[in-house]
Structure to design on (453 residues):
């Protein structure tokens, strides 16, 4: 390898929270509301809480394995030890596309909301400039990147509660919320809830990316569980609040197709201060999300290259900043290109599908991990409670979400599966024989022999 230095261990729980919540906070501002079109208003809030349970299980599963495997790459790093090269390659690729597509969705929303300022506004230069600035910050170092993410994520999150209190929800006589008049209940029954699960994911998509920064934590066993679990609880509170204010201020037919539902809710309040706050919150949430996506996608791409699953040119750290700078720069134009397809729901769907496939594989890895290393055989800094129940719930709800995606997006599912199948063929035929297994297995030789191996 050209560079054998290690990534800087500078991150604490605050930064892990900022990475996870920062990526996901944009899901409060856009995307989730498509669940209303598929399942009605009650279907959307039901999906919000059902998927919230799924993500709590995912965080528990990922955190136990992530604390044992403190390497860049998150679920990819887990897969290389528990499932082998082909599965690791696919999971790494899925992670990259999950975050690149999410970054593209952020660019789409920024462009659309800037157009509300004036029909003459050309959004493209501003979006490219924003992504270039965020890429430069990522290039210079992860500590500054995630410190910035903490600040802008916190500001964006606060704007949701500015909107909430502006509705005077606490007053029976003065409240602006009109839940009964604006909502449409559950028009498609229980099937609507299943259909809505797909976009319920958008409230939380990306929180699992906290594991991708495990190698850069000062204390992985402390930073990863605290940051990830507190982040998931933060998102549950924010998601419920978002559904409440949007469903009480915007008619369901409009809300189900809005590009920026919280901003539309702010305009329904009519207070200029609230409108400006939500305008800023939407922009900041997109920037926080894009910032975190650059961090996570580049770590996955870097880890795959360092382990020789893809060309090693990307597996190099900057000699001064200790960042995977080549991976960061390589993925930027890909995100911009997808962002300007203009198809927000299609981009979101591919990101969600890639993520759901990773979640299913994560549940499988947890079963195998516990079988290979039963309790007491290796040190665990965090233990997922009630095993195997979280893994069973995670797999069941992930599969159910894919079933829900079939209603309206079966072509996307088929196209995505074909893409990953063709990528697997390329890997088996063209790349697998180039793998340097000494690099690939990393520090596996310091583990005790697994049960049955």
């Amino acid at each position: 390898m050209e560079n054998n230095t290690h990534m800087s261990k500078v991150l604490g729980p605050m930064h892990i929270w900022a990475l996870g919540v920062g990526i996901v906070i944009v899901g409060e501002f856009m995307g989730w509301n498509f669940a209303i079109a598929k399942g009605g208003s009650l279907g959307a809030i039901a999906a919000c809480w059902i998927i919230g349970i799924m993500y709590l299980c995912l965080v528990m599963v990922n955190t136990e394995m992530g604390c044992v495997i403190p390497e860049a790459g998150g679920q990819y790093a887990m897969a290389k030890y528990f499932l082998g090269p082909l599965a690791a390659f696919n999971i790494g690729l899925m992670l990259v596309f999950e975050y690149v597509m999410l970054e593209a969705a952020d660019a789409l929303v920024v462009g659309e909301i800037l157009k509300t300022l004036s029909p003459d506004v050309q959004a493209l230069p501003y979006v490219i400039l924003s992504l270039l600035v965020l890429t430069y910050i990522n290039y210079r170092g992860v500590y500054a990147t995630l410190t910035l993410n903490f600040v802008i994520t916190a500001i964006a999150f606060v704007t949701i509660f500015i909107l909430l209190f502006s509705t005077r929800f606490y007053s029976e006589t003065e409240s602006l919320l009109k839940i009964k008049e604006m909502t449409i209940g559950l028009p498609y029954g229980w099937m609507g809830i299943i259909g809505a699960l797909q976009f319920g994911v958008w409230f939380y998509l990306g929180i699992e990316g906290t594991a991708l920064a495990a190698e850069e934590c000062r204390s992985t066993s402390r930073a990863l569980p605290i940051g990830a679990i507190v982040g998931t609880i933060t998102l549950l509170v924010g998601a419920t609040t978002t559904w409440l204010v949007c469903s009480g201020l915007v008619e369901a037919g409009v809300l189900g197709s809005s590009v920026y539902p919280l901003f539309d809710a702010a305009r329904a309040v009519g207070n200029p201060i609230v409108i400006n706050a939500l305008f800023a919150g939407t922009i900041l949430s997109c920037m926080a999300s894009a910032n975190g996506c650059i961090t996570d996608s580049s770590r996955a791409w870097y880890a795959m290259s360092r382990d020789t699953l893809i060309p090693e040119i990307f597996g190099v750290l900057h000699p001064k900043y200790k960042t995977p700078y080549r991976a960061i720069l390589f993925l930027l134009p890909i995100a911009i290109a997808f962002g300007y397809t203009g198809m927000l729901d299609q981009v979101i769907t591919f990101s969600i599908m890639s993520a759901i496939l990773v979640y299913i594989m994560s549940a499988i890895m947890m079963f195998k991990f516990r079988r290979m290393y039963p309790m007491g055989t290796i040190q665990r800094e965090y233990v997922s409670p009630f095993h195997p129940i979280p893994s069973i719930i995670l797999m069941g709800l992930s599969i159910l979400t894919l079933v829900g995606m079939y209603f309206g997006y079966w072509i996307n599912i088929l196209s995505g599966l074909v893409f990953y199948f063709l990528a697997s063929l390329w890997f088996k035929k063209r790349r697998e024989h180039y793998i340097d297994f000494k690099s690939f297995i990393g520090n596996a030789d310091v583990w005790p022999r697994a049960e049955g191996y």
